[in-house]
Amino acid sequence: MVEKAASTAGLLGHAEPAASARAPRRGGFNAVVKAILVSACTAIFVGSAVLLCSSHGSTDELYFALGRYLDVPQPSHLTASCPQQQPYQPKGEPASVALDVLADRLSKAIQIDTTVGDNWPSPKDDPERWRAFDKFADYLRTSFPRAHERLELEKINEHGLLYTWKGSQGDLKPLLMMAHQDVVPVNPETLGQWVHPPFDGYIDRDNQTVWGRGATDCKSWLVSIMSTVEAMLERGFEPKRTILFSFGFDEESNGPQGAAHLSARIEEVWGRDSIAMLVDEGNPILSASDPMAPGISVALPGVEEKGLLDIEVTIETSGGHSSAPPPHTSIGLVSRAVAALEDARDRLEADHLIDHSASLTFLQCIRDAPGFPPNLRTALKDLDWASRSSIFGDASAIASLPLPSGIDALAASTIGRILDRGKNRRIRRAKERIVHAMPDQLRVPFLTTTAADVIHGGVKLNALPESASAFLDHRIASSSGIDKLHKHYIKTLTPLAREHGLSFEAFGNAVNVTGGAAGSQGKLTIKHLRQGFEPAPNTPLVGDEAAPWNLFSSIIRSTWKNEDGSPVLVAPSMMQGNTDSRYFNNLTKHIFRFGPNTVMADKTGLGAMTGVHTINEHFAIQGLGDAVRFYSTLFQAVGDEKL
Questions:
Q1: pLDDT value at position 43?
Q2: Whether 182 is catalytic
Q3: What pLDDT, in 10s, does the model give residues 360-399?
Q4: Is residue 505 a known part of a binding site?
Q5: What pTM value is reported for the model?
Q6: Tens digits of residue pLDDT in 334-350
Q7: 613 a known binding residue?
C-alpha cells in the first residue's frame, strides 16, 4: 500500500449493542423523565423547564455529569456508537489449505523481485524494465493451475492481471477482489539490518513467519486470494455471483500503469456502479499484544481513504559568486516556504469530528480499551451521551407525547426545538473536549497532513543557486479537498512572496502579490508534482445502503475470535495511505480496504505491521490460513445474501 450500521433483519440478524455500552443503573429512567416533562409542559411559558434544558455553562456540565453517572442506554431509534454485527453463519464449511503449502507459496512469490520505482515509463515503451512481472505471472500460472484453467484471464497494459470467475446468476453485480504484484524498493544501505535477506522469502519455522519484501504489502493477500480460489475449485465450488480479481503492478508508484488501466477496462465491460463490493488491501487485525494495538484485539477495515496531492515549491533567484550573497538565497527562501507551510499545517478542530465518520466511530469503538487515554474516553462518552438526545427526548419525541389539556402541539414543538438547540450545543462542547484530550498520534486520521520529504538546490559550494525546490506530500482528510489545499498554499505563501519581492505563480495561474517590488528578486512557483486524488467517497455504514458493510463485518466476526471465544471487535477506520482502489470509485461506493491476518500475537516480537516499507517485513503463517477462511466465506456469502 502506498504508505492504512443499520439493522439487518432478514439478512444477518439484529446488530448487537455497542461494544462500549453498559447496562443502565436506573431502570425506567426515560419513562420517569418523560412523565416529568408532561407535567412541566403546563408551565412552559413561565420558562422553568426551558431554562433547565437550554441554559449554558453549568447546566451542560450537570447534564454531562448526569450522563456519566446514569449511563442511560441509547434509544432504540438511534444508531449505536459502535454497532457490532452478529457473526455470520455460513451455509458450508470455509475452505482450508495446509499452512506449509501457503508458506511455501508466499515464499516463492517473495523470491521474485517485483520492485517498482516512481515515474517509470509504460511497459509498452520500456518492456525490459517490467520483465519481472512476466516471471511473476508464470509463477501464478504454475502455482494455481485450476484457477488458470477455470477462470478467464485478461492481461491489461501488459502486466495487469484481470481474472473473471463467472457466476451462475448473471443478474447479480460482481464482487471485485484486489491486490498488487509490485513491492517498494529495499534501501541497499539497510541490507545488513534485515533478519533475513529481503528477497529470500525465508520461512521461519520457529516463529511461524515468512520474511521478505512484500510479505505483508501485499503478496500475502494475493497468494491467499489465489489459494482460496484453487481450494474452492478443488472441492467443486461454483459461485452464484461473478467474482473479478484485479491485480495491479505499480500500486507503489501511484498506479498509473496498472490500476488506472484495470479500472477503465472493468468499467468498459461492466459499466459504472456495476460492482456490489470491492475488497482491496488495507488496515489489518491487531492482536491485543501488538505494539500498535490499544490493549484489545481489533479488526480495522478501512472504509474511508484520504486524498493525495504532491506539490513542488520552486524559487528562482539570480545566481552569482557566493562571496557576495543576497540576504536569502533561493535555498534559504525555499526553506522559509517549507517552514511557513509546516507552521500553518492543519490543526484539529471540532469541525473535523464528523458524525458517523470512520475516524470518530473508530475512537468510540476502542474507547474502553485498557490502553486508551482516560480523558479522551470521558470526552467520547460525553459526546455519545450528548448525541443521543436531550435527557427529555428529542424534538420528534416531545411532539409525539400525549399532552395535558390546554397544551397544544405548537407549544410541544417549541419545547422540542429549544431542547434540540441545547443538544447541539452540548455536542459541540463535547467535541471541543475531545479535541483538547486527543494525543497527537490519534489526530492524524482527522487531518490533512504535510510532509516535506525532498529538497534540493545548488550545484557548487561557491556558486549561488539559481533555483531551489522542495517537494511536499499531503494526505487529504475527508473534511477537506484539493481546492481547499490550493487556497491554503496561496494564503500561506503570498506574504512570503510579498516580503521578498517574488512574483508568484500557483497551479498555473498568476497570483496578485501586490507591492511595487513583486518580481524584482525572483519567482515563486507551486505546482502539482503528479496527479492528485480527492478523498474517496465514504463507504455506507448505516441505513438502507449498509448491507455490504453489515455482511463484510459479520464475516470478520465469524472468522476471528478472541482467546475467550468471543468475536473480535470490528472498528471501521480511515485508510491514511493510498491504495489502488482510488481508481475504482466509479464502480462502487462499497469499498473495503482490509488486510486479513491473525489475531494471535506476533511471535517475532516486532508487531504484525512492523517492516511495511522498511526493514524486516514479515507475515505470520497462521494469517495466511485465516485469510483463506475469510475469503472463502466471503465468496460463498456474496452469492447467498442480498447486497
A1: 46
A2: yes
A3: 999 999 999 999 999 999 999 999 888 875 555 555 555 5
A4: no
A5: 0.85
A6: 999 999 999 999 999 99
A7: yes
71 appears as a binding residue in the annotation: no
Q: Is 206 annotated as a binding residue?
A: no
Question: Looking at this protein, which amino acid is placed at residue 470?
Answer: A
Q: Cell numbers of 168, please? A: 451462475
**Cell match 497551479: residue?**
507
Which member of 60, 182, 304, 346 is catalytic?
182
Look at residue 309 in the predicted model and tell me its pLDDT.
97
Type of residue found at 174: P
CA distance 197 to 564: 38
Contact (CB, 8 A) for 126 and 158? no
Q: Give Cα 389 to chain centroid, integer Å.
A: 29
Is 251 annotated in the active site?
Answer: yes
Identify whether the C-beta of residue 279 lies closer than 8 Å to the C-beta of residue 554: no
* Residue 30 to residue 112: CA distance in whole angstroms: 64
Distance of CA 225 to the CA centre of its chain: 21
Domains of the chain and any CATH numbers: 29-73+351-445 (no CATH), 99-306+536-640 (3.40.630.10), 308-346+448-528 (3.30.70.360)
Quote the pLDDT of residue 415.
61
* 189 marked as part of a ligand binding site: no
- What residue ranges of the chain have pLDDT lower than 70? 1-80, 389-419, 515-519
Handedness of CA 412, 417, 418, 423 (dihedral sign): positive
Which residues are CB-neighbours of 529 under 8 A, at least 6 positions away? 310, 311, 312, 471
The one catalytic residue among 60, 230, 250, 251: 251
- Burial class (CB within 10 angstroms; exposed 0-12, middle 13-18, buried 19+) of 590: buried
d(CA 537, CA 177): 19
Q: What is the pLDDT of residue 52?
A: 46
Contact 175, 276 (CB under 8 A): yes
Contact indicator for 201, 159 with CB cutoff of 8 Å: no
Question: Could you tell me the CA-to-CA distances from 467 to 6, 106, 335, 459 in Å, in that order?
Answer: 56, 47, 12, 10
Task: Please name the residues in contact with 495: beta carbons below 8 A apart, sequence gap of 6 or more.
Answer: 340
Q: Which residues contact 340 (CB under 8 A, 6 or more apart)?
A: 492, 493, 495, 496
CA gap 59, 381 in Å, rounded: 17
pLDDT for the residue numbered 14: 35
- For residue 375, what pLDDT is reported? 97
Please tell me what DSSP assigns to residue 439. Answer: -
